[in-house]
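The material for today's practical consists of a large collection of protein records. There is nothing in a record beyond a sequence line and a structure line. As an example, a complete record with its sequence and its structure tokens follows:
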Amino acid sequence: MTNLKVMSLGRNKFEGLLPPCLNNLTSLGVLDLQYNGFEGTFPSELFHSPNSLTFITLNENSFTDIASLSLFANHINLQVFIISCSNNPNLKLETEYPQFLPSFQLNIFSVSKCTRNGASNHRIPSFLLHQFDLRVLQLAHLNLSGSFPKWVLTNNTKLVSLSVSYNFLTGPFELNSPSKLFDMRYFDASSNHVNDEIPPHIGFVLPNLLSLNMSSSSLQGGFPASLADMTQLNWLDLSHNNLSGYLPHEFGKGTNDLRFLKLSNNNLSDPCLPEGSNFTHLFYVDLSNNNFKGKVPDGISKSLELRMLELSANQLYGEMPSWIGNFKHLGHLILYQNSMTGPIPESFCNLAELKYLDLSQNRFNGTLPSCLNMSPLRYLHLRSNDFTGPIPSVLTESPLLLT
């Protein structure tokens, strides 16, 4: 089949060696071998001579030896290259030796969980300096070091998704793009050693971002008010950093599409959410392990699809709000280690899907409502409070209870 243009074998259970006759497919444009069990040495022979290949994806096979990206230097039509080595512990990816100038302009380059070979083991692949048409760039779990690659954003103004997570990249974290990157939707620099502040103008440069993840990156400084300019933001994870100060007033007004909010394990201070916040679409909120003060914020009261609320290890006080019972799909409510007082409101009985309830280390008092729906409950932690009266008999209706 020497005129074959598309070979898509992905997501099957093929195994064994690739037959050498594949080298005859010089008209091939698309080669998709991902998620199989092909083994043997990396099929370099497939790529020795320039051909019409535009799309190559080799994820999750069991190839061995060395895969050198210089094989593709003269493949002028190449647009997509994807490989993940989580199932390839004996495959080494060589990006620098021999060095090459690419004749292609990639749209998608995705490499993850691969061992890099040679002396430049920790460098970001240098050929990417010559790429100006990238839409997706993923360099995850590669032990990359050096400064955050600001040139990627400067050179590729149509970039949609950038992921450099689980590396050792450091600051300075700069966004020097001369214009707004309107196409950028996903930005993930989590689990690095940036050790710098978030640029105050990040919302101006990336106004249409849907997801921002910079958790566990040693970030410092304050929470930029320009994040409110990301009016389409769905997912924000800045947890496990050293951010300090208040959440700006603009944030509560400008990000009403937010669904996932995780700011845990920082040094942020009161209040939990800016006064006047009006979030309506939240389903996951984790603000634990900060220095927030005040009452449980009203800014989340209209997010009726909320599944997870964790405000533990802060300095919250006051009673549990009655509107907590409006979250009929709430599965996790974790408020431990605060200074909250008062009885559990009767509206609590509306929480029919609660699986994890931790109110320990507060000052709650009164009796536990007898109408509580305990049937889905798996974890119930109430220690170090001032509850009185009998243990509710409805606990006997908790067949899934573990602790």
Observations:
- The longest helix spans residues 150-155.
- The CA atoms of residues 283 and 305 lie 6 Å apart.
- The chain has a mean pLDDT of 93.
